[in-house]
Specification:
- This protein has ten helices and 17 strands.
- The relative contact order is 0.16.
- By secondary structure, it is of the alpha/beta class.
- It has helices spanning about 40-45, 105, 145-150, 155-165, 185-195, 225-230, 245-255, 275-280, 295-305, 320-325; strands at about 1-5, 15-20, 30-35, 70-75, 90-95, 95, 115-120, 130-135, 140, 175-180, 200, 215, 235-240, 255-265, 285-290, 315-320, 335-340.
- The protein is globular and about 60 Å long.
- Bound molecules: NADP nicotinamide-adenine-dinucleotide phosphate and zinc ion (ZN).
- The site of NADP nicotinamide-adenine-dinucleotide phosphate has 27 residues, from α1, α4, α5 and α7.
- This is Putative NAD-dependent alcohol dehydrogenase.
Length: about 350
């Protein structure tokens, strides 16, 4: 098959060429990729800086195919695979590898599995014509869900869904999302709106209003004043901050009493300074989340089917051009998602 792969870390080491597809095992499924989204994690995997701000996962195998957020159709399956999975089924791939038996998996926290990994890192991913995955990672998608939206659900969608769930956001509460135009940011705002929260998206991109943001504000010296005004002085109930170091103090500042700050990423660095006085005087809760569970992904699919969640695509690339797609992920002018289409 054709694939984009690398033998050692570095964008410059990516090669688009033939890749020998191994035989599938009894409990595995061969998926023909239709749409693979590009996320920061793919850039970190390829450049070898994955884990700089946290535990690193070993890249396996080499030569390696990255690409962690994938939608496609079932091409073939191993002998022990369940009858409900059939050739031609449209699926998305739950991107966390998990054993299903450890204490975290048993409690529906597959993303924290003791023996876990990630498709695109600890196994080959989706920047290829085909990807082989364990059957438990296969999630069918409804007919009405198009490829472009579906392929954003396993990472960006699910991470946002889990973060909002864990924040216990309620109707009428004020939600502030840092990195509002980003992959996760756009889902956070839309999911927040479905809960009937007042959504404040921090970004320089005004079009987020079309995606459920009641307010779009730049991160500048006037931010505190503007949040004070919008919230009538009570400040934010929930702050989602995946940007980390450079914006952390602002997040602590604009969260109100009994507020919750959720982080699942540290795009600008991982040293998060916490002013203890703010923490206790406002009784703030700070919580980390990562990805989400299989059940969460199923719930998100239902939500997406029934409600008006949308995606915004900035650029579409062919598989052959997926190297350019990865290079563009941190482009300052990016206005929405970057995807690889293979259909
Ligand atoms: N733990 C997990 O499971 C998980 C899952 C997904 C993502 N993440 C992490 O979460 C973070 C966000 O992911 P994402 O996919 O949403 O990323 P993304 O699509 O790149 O979005 C980040 C957004 O942040 C803003 N931004 C970028 N650089 C900035 C800077 N230096 N200062 C201020 N704002 C900046 C930009 O929005 P504006 O132009 O609108 O300001 C950008 O669109 C990343 O670190 C990623 O690795 C973790
Ligand atoms: Zn487990």
């Amino acid at each position: 098959m054709k694939a984009l792969f690398f033998n050692k870390p570095g964008i410059e080491n990516l090669i688009f060429s033939d890749y020998q597809l191994p035989d599938i095992r009894d409990d595995e499924i061969l998926v023909e990729t239709k749409c693979t989204s590009v996320n920061p994690i793919d850039y970190y995997t390829v450049t070898g800086i994955h884990g700089v701000n946290g535990p690193a996962m070993k890249i396996n195998p080499y030569p390696h195919i990255a690409g962690s957020e994938i939608a496609g159709t079932i091409k073939s399956k191993g002998e022990r695979v369940n009858n409900t999975i059939r050739e031609g089924d449209r699926v998305i791939i739950y991107n966390r590898v998990f054993d299903g038996i450890c204490k975290y998996c048993k409690n529906n926290h597959q993303m924290l599995c003791e023996n876990g990994g990630m498709i695109g890192i600890s196994r080959n991913g989706g920047f290829a014509e085909y990807v082989i995955v364990p059957q438990q990672n296969i999630i069918k998608i409804p007919d009405g869900l198009d490829w472009e939206l579906a392929c954003g659900l396993p990472i960006a969608g699910l991470t946002a869904y889990n973060a909002i769930q864990e924040s216990r956001l309620k109707s009428e509460e004020k939600l502030v999302v840092f990195g509002g135009s980003g992959n996760t940011g756009l889902f956070c705002t839309q999911i927040g709106k479905l809960i009937d929260a007042i959504t404040i998206s921090l970004s320089s991109k005004p079009w987020i209003k079309e995606y459920g943001a009641d307010y779009v504000l730049p991160i500048d010296e006037n931010l505190r004043e503007k949040i004070l005004e919008i919230t009538n002085g009570t400040m934010a109930d929930v702050v989602i901050n995946s940007l980390g170091e450079n914006t952390w103090a602002k997040g602590m500042d604009i969260v109100g009493k009994l507020g919750r700050i959720i982080t699942f990423g540290v795009l600008t660095g991982g040293n998060l300074f916490i002013d203890g006085r703010l923490l206790y005087n406002k009784q703030i809760t700070i919580k980390g989340t990562t990805g989400g569970s299989v059940e969460g992904l199923l719930n998100l699919i239902e939500m997406t089917k029934e409600q008006s969640i949308r995606t915004k695509i900035w650029k579409r690339y062919s598989l052959e051009d997926s190297k350019i797609a990865i290079e563009k992920i941190f482009d300052k002018n990016r206005e929405g998602r970057i995807i690889i289409e293979n259909y």
